[in-house]
């Protein structure tokens, strides 16, 4: 492969990554704007989270529910996300909300991950 072809392949990969990220964030934006859904999720989490609760968020997406559980006082939260593009988003939101020490971020498929704990809320 020539240097020119390698540069084109790198540019194509970069463009594909940003296109994927853009589409992913648009999808999550729709979810985050769904007030009814979000109120119901929040209330369900609020009712069940205590200082002893271990929470597992499968398909964490932007991490909003993992972070919510942590802010509501969960002992530990594990956020599982398959899309590596979303991991820095979750990490940044956890840091910004002061719960980075409570939220563990795991990249992978929940069916293939060896979880170290039992969870009270999934």
Structural notes for this entry:
It is a single chain. With 122 residues, the protein is α/β, with parallel strands linked by helices. Helices cover 51% and strands 13% of the residues. The chain has four helices and three strands. It has a three-stranded parallel β-sheet, with helices on one face. It starts with a helix and ends in a 15-residue tail after the last strand.
Question: Could you list some keywords that capture this structure?
Answer:
122 residues; 51% helix; globular; alpha/beta
Strand content: 5-15%
Mean pLDDT: 89
- The largest beta-sheet arranges its strands as 1-2-3
Based on DSSP secondary structure assignment, what is the total number of beta strands? 3
Topology:
Blueprint: H1 3-32, H2 35-48, E1 54-58, H3 64-71, E2 76-81, H4 87-96, E3 103-107
Parallel strand pairs: 1-2, 2-3
Could you give a quick summary of the protein structure above?
By secondary structure, the protein is an alpha/beta fold. The protein has 4 helices and 3 strands. 51% of the residues lie in helices and 13% in strands.
